[in-house]
Amino acid sequence: MATFTLEIVQAVSDWQRGGDHNTKVKRGAALKKACAGLPSSFCTWDGPCYRQEAHKKDRVWQLLADNRLPETTAAWTTDLGIAKTFKGGVPPEGLRGVIFKLHPPAASVVVNLSALYTDADFHDACERHRGQIPYYGDGIGRYGDSQKEVVLEIASLDQASIHAYGGYSSSREDLAELYFGRVPSDDDLAAFDQLCVQANVGAGAWWLTETGTQAVLKRMEPHVARLRTQRQATTAAPAR
Fold first, then answer.
1. Which residues, other chains included, contact 226 with Cβ-Cβ below 8 Å and sequence gap of 6+?
2. What is the distance between the alpha carbons of residues 50 and 80, in angstroms, rounded to a whole number?
3. d(C-alpha 222, C-alpha 217), whole Å
4. What is the largest CA-CA distance in the chain?
5. Domain range annotation of the chain
6. Which domain of life is it from (predicted)?
7. Which runs of consecutive H residues, i.e. helices, occur in the chain?
8. What is the predicted pLDDT for the residue at 195?
């Protein structure tokens, strides 16, 4: 039986509150220290993990050109559906939504929060210590196991870990025009809406399938190769 101290409950609650990059680094270190002595059952996960990020164009190309995106201690989820809807789902236009997938190396698992939340002793400790933890309602009290979270310490991510890209389709009217081959009437739009319902698809935000994402990455390979050549030439150019 694990002993869940005030330090452990405090670290978990603080971590789940979130924060900016510097706060995340600080709280991640505190979480790792607090959970270091927990039984291995709380510090392992054998299945896939997912993480959604919103990238600007430079970060998209950094990942593809360098095949390496620096990472830190971060929250992942064991549930792909949660990753797809995290922070409202597909990021707003102007950002590229990406979902990463990996099977984490054993040494990378800081703590499996989802496993903690299935333990009755941890729940008892939360109730016992909650009055001593500032902003408990913004951390454990707000999130609990709703995010099926596993905290991982990963040095970097590569292109092979990209599971899905997200973005926005054309408008409903544009899609209907493509389908019917003419400017759609009101009746056309109604029929198009019914077809979308039957196929469970529609205009707006979407996540590509893993196969579709791999197809996009394949089409981007020539552009990535050209970018690498340009960057190498710039790096190798003598200073003036």
1. none
2. 6
3. 10
4. 68
5. 6-165
6. Bacteria
7. 6-17, 21-35, 57-66, 80-85, 113-116, 120-129, 140-143, 172-180, 186-199, 210-236
8. 84
Q: Which residues contact 46 (CB under 8 A, 6 or more apart)?
A: 103
Which residue, 20, 104, 114, 24, is CA-closest to 72?
A: 24
The DSSP bridge partners found for residue 153 are 73
Residues 6+ away with beta carbon under 8 Å from 173: 184, 189
Contact 129/6 with Cβ under 8 angstroms?
Answer: yes
Please report, as a single letter, which amino acid is at residue 116.
L
Q: How far apart are CA 51 and CA 212, in angstroms?
A: 18
Residue owning tokens 């190309």: 61
d(CA 53, CA 51): 7
More confident residue, 29 or 62: 29
pLDDT of residue 205: 83
Q: Where are the beta strands (DSSP E) in 94-184?
A: 96-102, 109-112, 149-153, 156-157, 162-168
What does the pLDDT look like over 148-190, one tens digit per residue? 999 999 999 999 999 999 887 777 887 787 678 789 999 999 9
The one-letter code for the residue type at 155 is A
